[in-house]
Amino acid sequence: MEMMNWERRSLLNELIHGLKAAKQLQAILMLNGSTTQHNPTIELAPDPLAHPGKVPGSPASITGNPRSEEFFNVRSKEFNLSSKKRKMLPKWTEQVRISPERGLEGPHDDIFSWRKYGQKDILGAKFPRSYYRCTFRNTQYCWATKQVQRSDGDPTIFEVTYRGTHTCSQGIPLPEKRETKPKHTVAVNYQNLRASLTVRTGGLGSEAFSFPVTSPLYTYESINGGGTFYHHVGSSGPSDFTGLISTNTSTGSSPIFDVNFQFDPTAEINTGFPTFFHNSI
DNA sequence: CCAATTTGACCCCA
DNA sequence: TGGGGTCAAATTGG
To answer: Which residues from 75-104 of A have any strand C atom under 7 Å from their CB?
Structure first.
């Protein structure tokens, strides 16, 4: 019940992230090709599709961005993102309440697989903090990490802080090749609650849909079960993006959403949200 | 045998 | 300088 609200709110938050990322991506794509210099706050993560199980040092990805190479110095210790860059990675926290049914240490199941790489006692905290990284860091150069801290006040609550978004496929089937043949395909995996978003941007000529502006932040409305429209309204001015969200049933109960975005490419882009993209064939 | 976890060392930066 | 984040060798688990 309240769980529902929480999930919905988390989902909405995630959508906001996704929408921003998609918007940013759109802007990048529009600058595509004759790129002079994109916004320095934008950090593109390596495209795992461009290097499937490949070794670093391979030629620039199909994004054509030669700077991508700097992410592939895997042999040496340079394979870290510099701390500066790491700091720019998106970071967010969610509270996860332990589920009585699953029992003790099981509240941290994302749909993503993580590998624990450290545990630290934190001053003033009753419980140690544990550190996880994406299982596919070395195979797909996915830099997503999370840390889990059990709350002092309420031991049934775990504070999960995520850093970076997944650029790996995590076994989630990437967008299929042909259907509506979008100009560009965006794959964005978000690790909020149990949701993973597969984002597909349509071509520039895709049909637009619009909504009445009511909520100061965002509104949503369900549409005949086929999906839910989400509409984000900027604090100033008209809507800067809208999206159609539908649950993807192809993977059974797996919570995957198809999101079709429609956004105003002229809107400001400053999320610094790393993602990856590739041109569809 | 391989992959995940544990755990002390190491390292960076406020 | 030390607190917090990460590394990596040793260990555990499947």
So the answer is: 77, 80, 86
Rounded to two decimals, the pTM is 0.49
The phi, psi pair for A78, rounded to 5°, reads -70, -5
Residue pair A161/A91 in contact by the 8 Å Cβ criterion: yes
Nearest in space to A258 (alpha carbons), one of A63, A24, A18: A18
- Give CA–CA dist A41/A85, Å, rounded: 10
* Angstrom distance (rounded) from CA A90 to CA A110: 18
- Which residues in chain A, range 27-46, keep a C-beta under 7 Å from any nucleic strand C atom? none
**CB A118 under 7 Å to nucleic chain B:** yes
CB A86 within 8 A of CB A163: yes
Extended beta strands in A151-195, E state: 157-163, 184-187
In DSSP terms, A134 is beta-bridged to A114
How many whole angstroms from its chain centre is CA A99?
25
Joined together, the tokens standing for residue A72 give: 């592939």
pLDDT in tens, A12-69: 555 555 555 555 555 444 433 333 232 322 333 333 333 333 333 333 333 333 333 3
